[in-house]
Automatic annotation (TrEMBL):
<feature type="binding site">
    <location>
        <position position="102"/>
    </location>
    <ligand>
        <name>[2Fe-2S] cluster</name>
    </ligand>
</feature>
<keyword id="KW-0093">Biotin biosynthesis</keyword>
<dbReference type="Pfam" id="PF06968">
    <property type="entry name" value="BATS"/>
</dbReference>
<dbReference type="Pfam" id="PF04055">
    <property type="entry name" value="Radical_SAM"/>
</dbReference>
<comment type="function">
    <text>Catalyzes the conversion of dethiobiotin (DTB) to biotin by the insertion of a sulfur atom into dethiobiotin via a radical-based mechanism.</text>
</comment>
<dbReference type="InterPro" id="IPR058240">
    <property type="entry name" value="rSAM_sf"/>
</dbReference>
<dbReference type="InterPro" id="IPR006638">
    <property type="entry name" value="Elp3/MiaA/NifB-like_rSAM"/>
</dbReference>
<dbReference type="GO" id="GO:0051539">
    <property type="term" value="F:4 iron, 4 sulfur cluster binding"/>
</dbReference>
<dbReference type="InterPro" id="IPR010722">
    <property type="entry name" value="BATS_dom"/>
</dbReference>
<dbReference type="GO" id="GO:0005506">
    <property type="term" value="F:iron ion binding"/>
</dbReference>
<feature type="domain" description="Radical SAM core">
    <location>
        <begin position="43"/>
        <end position="271"/>
    </location>
</feature>
<keyword id="KW-0408">Iron</keyword>
<comment type="pathway">
    <text>Cofactor biosynthesis; biotin biosynthesis; biotin from 7,8-diaminononanoate: step 2/2.</text>
</comment>
<feature type="binding site">
    <location>
        <position position="194"/>
    </location>
    <ligand>
        <name>[2Fe-2S] cluster</name>
    </ligand>
</feature>
<comment type="similarity">
    <text>Belongs to the radical SAM superfamily. Biotin synthase family.</text>
</comment>
<feature type="binding site">
    <location>
        <position position="62"/>
    </location>
    <ligand>
        <name>[4Fe-4S] cluster</name>
    </ligand>
</feature>
<feature type="binding site">
    <location>
        <position position="65"/>
    </location>
    <ligand>
        <name>[4Fe-4S] cluster</name>
    </ligand>
</feature>
Amino acid sequence: MNHTQEDIRHNWTKEELLAIYNKPLLSLVFEAAGVHRRWHNPEEVQLSTLLSVKTGGCPEDCSYCGQAARYHTDIEVQALLPTETVVAHAKRARDGGSTRFCMAAAWREVRDNRDFDRIIEMVKQVNGLGLEVCCALGMLTESQAQRLQQAGLYAYNHNLDTSEEYYDEIISTRTFDNRIKTIAHVRDAGITVCSGGIIGLGESRADRIGMLCTLASMEKHPESVPINALARVKGTPLENNPKVDIWDMVRMIATARIAMPASMVRLSAGRLEMDEVEQAWCFMAGANSIFTGEREKLLVTPNPAISDDLDMLSRLGLKPMGKTW
Ligand code: SF4
């Protein structure tokens, strides 16, 4: 691994990133694979487990999401899980080889109430298991971010989803600027940032690049950048969108890898619709993190089980990564 922090750029232009995204595919993958090798051990893949600790009934209108209360989906609403249940899931994830445990709640924002007190307790207990603890709870204030940090939260997931220009087409109940503010609160509290987006929402190439450019222009790049392919949930406004082309995923991952070389680039939602060869291309393009799960769900859409993932990694000559801290 041959690099210095000074090699990280924060002044990418959209034109530069679009030119990278549009390179001939094999040249793009070759370049991204080179960057990946300079910054990371290319044989290691981080395994993260995601648990929905509160499911459905969300007041937001994200048009890709089956948990929005206003859409008629098959998702079962589930109140905040008991702490013991969450900790038992976290133990199983750790014993299965995960090093990161992410707890997601379908909230618009965190409220300073008893549910937040319970989340704080979950963070403390999961942290005590030696796992990197991550939460995705919606918008946060500065003081809430500080409370989470003091409880031992390692990372906070808050995706940009798409470009600033396309944002209103996908979500009307909050603004792009709201997202940026929460990410700033997380950063200021000393929690690492997990932020990426989704392709397949009907966005243009310019929107994909716009989103990556916002992330890559941050004073400090997000430590994790999830790249999701739309999981088309029945009952949501985007249920009939076309399936994301695998080469679009590979291009997004490769461009994210080149623009944010030190970050973990996570192959996230939509992985179940990819076969092993397609996933191998994503790893070659610089993805080095996946969500895996005992419940075989990524939040509310299907995801491969951890044993299947371990078999796949072994066939590809890859191995689970240890903790990143
Ligand atoms: S993505 Fe999150 S905020 Fe948006 S509707 Fe789904 S649960 Fe709510």
